[in-house]
Write a structure and sequence with these properties.
Largest sheet: 6 strands, antiparallel
Helix content: 55-70%
Shape: elongated
Strand order of the largest sheet: 3-2-1-6-5-4
Mean pLDDT: 77
Structural class: alpha+beta
């Protein structure tokens, strides 16, 4: 988009409601298409009020504005995540073709400052001889004294990070007493005008070699994602320094050897091979490759078999050693490199059948593990974004905020869901005991994650609500709501390793045209869920049809005809086909206290006739039709049937 177009999109006086009857959303779609600022979204509503348009039209514009702002926010979030990943991949590519360490470090600091949107970013390195850490690269700094600071171990926020090898963040530096304040450091920070500071360690194995910082000249809360992003840049910076050190060591060794030419050729071949794999990995990531593509590429370069394994099936001792040390470790006849990021362990890259590795090949395996962790983080970020979008759509359906069927269908279509299909609403809740609040919160997160995955794989929706989870799943032909409830309860219980109870609504349809039906169905599903828990059936699933005549009280639509048909439908159908009088006989039998003698007087027939009819009823309804609980349901169904056929 050109600068003129951007300026035009941001001028409020260029936005006006559409003059043609294309709907309230048209001006906001135009604003979205032009990438207008947030302020511009107020103009269609303000102009409509100035023109004296109806309250209904203004309300429609307000709703369309809210939806458009949510879409704009989601687009901005996705652009930001794409920019973050692109910057990480570009930095990884710079590292693969490392020629100038200072240039790579400057690029890392510049990208960190740009993506986190801070006033200043800087990087310090430890000085082992002096036992302190000093400024190496700064971006956005204006104070000379700040740029020349040296921090003793444990002094200031940076000294604390360098000493503890843990990230630290402060919203207000001068009010934070967690670290040691010194006159020299505080003066430098005050000269720079810094308030909020985030620092993450640059580590190689167990050793901290420096600190990467992002800072603002105003109070600010750094989010967890921003801390993880800066940590990723720190890992790349440490890798750049490590690679530069290796190159320096290589050059020093070559200079001191008598067989210089032979060693140069050998080392050049190794370095070119390492550079080649880094370039190949960067290209693979940029074109959208996956974890197994990375493993295949490394297999070709190392001339061995490399595969990604989950943490649960990887040898624990070797995996933990690699994770703690930050390097690939030898295991039996191969090597294991932990795949981890931000303190989270995803699994490992396992090289089999290759017991001997030179240092560069070992680095190659370790770099591949780092790229794999970035891919897994990106994939999880995309999955979480899709889960949020699915949850937001279901929240809108439950709260009936967005009643435009076309917009609802479009949003659902982007998620591969069809609101015109027959669906069932399920209320799911954990029923296992929780030791404390943290364990309960973790269990709820596992339930939400499992429900979201289930909804995504079955073209449905899921959202967290009322301390549990609500799902909207399509109903396959020939499948009942109760079947879906039981299968869902089993699936979720297995996924979270705790009993999950699920209550289902009756099938609902036309969700786009009737979004209020979802809220009503959810209320019915919760009533079934509460009934299951009261009956002691934790970890089970059921719908109203499973509760007999109690289902009439639980069902939102009071399906009387369905209850009668399920209870005595076969007897009614038999009378209609054969012209018999089984229904009246059954009613008289219960009216006469289940006495055949009194029943024959009531019907004016022989007692054998009554016995024959009741025998026929038993064959139609089953041998247990006179059990107390079943007899109660049959009597209720007879009363309801009689009321339904009376003129």
């Amino acid at each position: 988009m050109s600068r003129d177009h951007l300026q035009s999109a941001e001028r409020p006086d260029t936005v006006a409601p559409s003059a043609t009857p294309t709907g309230a959303e048209t001006p906001f779609l135009e604003l979205l298409a032009r990438g207008a600022s947030v302020d511009a979204y107020e103009q269609p509503v303000l102009l409509a009020r100035a023109e004296g348009r109806s309250a209904e039209a203004i309300a429609a514009l307000e709703r369309a504005k809210a939806v458009a702002l949510r879409v704009r926010a989601e687009l901005e979030g996705r652009r930001r995540r794409e920019a973050e990943l692109s910057a990480l991949f570009e930095t990884a590519h710079d590292l693969a073709g490392l020629r100038d360490l200072d240039a790579v470090l400057r690029a890392i600091v510049q990208r960190a400052r740009s993506l986190l949107g801070t006033d200043v970013a800087y990087l310090s390195l430890n000085d082992p001889e002096r036992g302190d850490t000093y400024m190496r690269v700064t971006e956005g700094s204006v104070a000379a004294r700040f740029q020349q600071l040296r921090l003793g171990m444990g002094e200031g926020l940076g000294g604390l990070v360098a000493q503890t090898a843990r990230p630290y963040v402060t919203d207000d530096y001068f009010k934070d007493d967690r670290f040691q304040h010194t006159h020299t450091i505080d003066t430098g920070v005050r000269d720079e005008g810094l308030v909020a500071i985030l620092g993450v360690p640059l580590t190689l194995g167990h050793h901290v070699i420096g600190v990467l910082f992002a800072a603002d000249r105003r109070a600010r809360v750094f989010e967890r994602e921003q801390i993880a992003l800066l940590g990723s840049f720190a890992a790349l910076a440490a890798a750049a320094i490590d690679t530069a050190n290796l190159l320096t060591e290589t050059r020093s060794a070559l200079a001191g050897l008598e067989r210089a030419n032979e060693i140069i050729r050998d080392r050049s071949g190794v370095i070119e091979r390492a550079s080649d794999i880094h370039d190949r990995l960067a290209e693979l990531v940029l074109r959208g490759g996956g974890v197994h593509d990375v493993a295949a590429a490394v297999s070709q370069v190392l001339d061995g078999t490399v595969e990604f394994t989950e943490a649960a099936v990887t040898p624990t001792a070797a995996l933990e050693a690699s994770r703690a040390d930050g390097h690939a470790v030898r295991h039996e006849d191969g090597w294991i490199a932990a795949v981890a990021a931000g303190g989270e362990l995803f699994g490992a890259l396992v090289l089999r059948g290759h017991p001997g590795l030179d240092p560069v090949d070992q680095r190659t395996l370790e770099r591949a593990a780092m790229v794999t962790s970035l891919l897994l983080l990106a994939r999880r970020s995309a999955a979480e974004a899709e889960q949020r979008v699915r949850g937001e759509l279901l929240d809108d359906l439950l709260d009936a905020r967005d009643r435009d069927p076309r917009l609802l269908r479009e949003r659902a279509s982007r998620l591969d869901a069809d609101l015109d299909a027959l669906h069932v609403v399920l209320a799911a809740r954990l029923d296992g005991p929780a030791a404390d609040a943290d364990q309960e919160a973790a269990s709820r997160r596992r339930l939400w994650s499992a429900a979201s995955h289930l909804a995504a794989t079955r073209h449905g929706l899921a959202a967290a609500r009322d301390g549990g989870t609500v799902l909207l799943l399509p109903l396959a032909p020939g499948t009942g709501a109760a079947d879906v409830a039981r299968r869902t309860a089993r699936h979720l219980s297995t996924a979270v390793h705790e009993p999950v109870t699920v209550g289902a609504s009756a099938p609902v349809e036309d969700l786009a045209a009737r979004p209020d039906a979802v809220a009503a169905a959810y209320a019915e599903g919760r009533r079934c869920l509460d009934a299951l828990r009261l009956l002691g059936r934790a970890g089970d699933g059921a719908a109203a049809e499973d509760f007999g005549f109690l289902g009439l009280l639980l069902a939102g639509e009071r399906d009387i005809a369905g209850f009668v048909d399920r209870t005595i439908g076969q007897v009614v159908a038999y009378d209609e086909r054969r012209g018999t009088d089984l229904v009246r006989t059954l009613d008289a039998y219960f009216t006469c206290g289940m006495s055949p003698a009194r029943t024959k007087d009531e019907l004016h027939v022989h007692v054998n006739t009554v016995a024959q009819r009741l025998e026929r009823v038993g064959r139609l309804l089953g041998d247990d039709w006179q059990d107390p609980a079943r007899a109660l349901e049959i009597q209720l169904a007879l009363r309801l049937h009689k009321l339904s056929v009376q003129p």
